Amino acid sequence: MPERDTGNRPLVNASEAAEYLGVTVETVEALARVSFLTPGRQGPDGPEFRFGDLKAFLARNADSGSGNVGRDMFDFDVDDADPQQLLDALDGRSEEMARRAFEIFASVFPEAAGWSLSEQARFIDQAKGRFEAILAVTGQGAEVDDALVEDLQAVGAGAAWSNSPLPQLLVVLRISRDLVVQTAVELAEERGRHWGLALSLLLTRVLPAMDRLTDALAQGYWAAVVNREDDSRARYENVLHHSVSGVWEIDLDGRIQYANPALAVILGRRPDQLQGSLLADVLAPADQSALALLTSEPPTEASHLLALTVVRPDGVRRELEVRSFARYAEGRLVGFQGMVQDQTTAKDLEAEKNEFLALVTRDLRIPLSTIAGLAATLETHSSELPHDRIRRMGHAVRRQVERISRQADDLYELSRLEASSLLLSPRPVELAPVLVAALDAVGDGPQDAVATVKVAVPAGVTVQADPRRLEQVVANLVENALEYGAPPVVIELVGVDRDTGVEFAIVDHGAGVPPALVPTLFSGLRTLGRSGRDRSRGTGLGLALVRGLVEAMGGRVWYEARPSQGGRFHVTLPEPRRP
User: For 243-342, CATH number?
Assistant: First the structure.
């Protein structure tokens, strides 16, 4: 053994410490990594050790503690050292190490101390399995199998996707690593010098293997976090791109940094016209003062909600609901985000619904007022009225009741048509008798006017239809012609075609329908919203019902304008099926 000479310096480097102890530099470094030797400081060439610590190390590990045989624990052939014996001894202490691991973990994470006994037992059982895996890996040497690295990367990725905190995972691994090393050192000290070299060889395996395993788990974790963020960003961008709500993002100067396609559609502009433009220029609300709120910081965790009316470059008015949010980066305000919903259709429908209810109420109130007046007259003066006057009053009451009943029926039938729940019974029907019968169901127009309606349809023409619904269609069209047009009214046969079916028309001699109203003539509530409409003439639901019934029977109805010749409504119905 060479003479131990440290030059009386208080600190020696690793090479000098190895020469003094009679071991390799690698062994000294391994002993330092597991704190079996504590460096005094980190010098320019690596760790430096106190001479007193080296003496203490020799005193602890020399035979009988004499302290004068520094190589005693390493003075045998390397081939005689068997690390597997130490691994087997460590494996026998797996459960003990697992319990110590829980105690250390609970000191680092105090909430673990409040776990139930079953939770603690599950942690200890998992820790025991982890120690056994570490020892199995250590037995393979410094090279860790690539498949095991991939498995640990998958474990880290799974932890990331389940939102498990990475610090806890790394702490658990570090606790396991240190406990294996600490227990190995304790066993070496307990069982004598021949275990020292085995410990040294073991440490050169444990530390690199454990570090690689820890790196693999962390790499898998962060790779999964990055992938998850990429997936979230892709989903977010896809949702924004296909959203029916307009979305913008502006900077502090009010310039648009991002706008989705829906915003361009709502504002009537091309997407490239929005990018980089001032929000005030492309939004242009009627109330310009509202723009200040869209570019001002709202209260914490809140947003601005505004109702704006804008006029697009094409002149179309839109009613918008706008919500604005402040956007922060690292606690600093960097811009604003906005979400726009087009409420124009909803508001228009709401207005039309209110108008519809008002018109229905008016149409019901007129006959009810008539009935109430007649009833009051009968109640007060029935003994004074002549018999024919009472008869006429009774007839008027009956007609007003029928009027209310027809309106209720129209509403009910229209709702059933829209819900596709109206049941029809189409069958071969001769057309002329149905047209004549329909005149008896015409409403409260003057009887002399009803008498002027002419049916010019020859006998023998048959159609495939529900006779009761066909009467309802014809009665509504004739009543419409008498009320909005002028007599005489003619129901004439236009033609019979094998492909298009039977076509007939209801013709009046009034002023006709204004061209602007023709596109919405059969469209229900849209009919109610016509500007300049004579509201005293009812809701106009009859034509919407006509279209629904005719189409339900497989036919078609349309209006033909005849300048200065009145209106002309055409109806086609299929011919009866032949065997």
Answer: 3.30.450.20
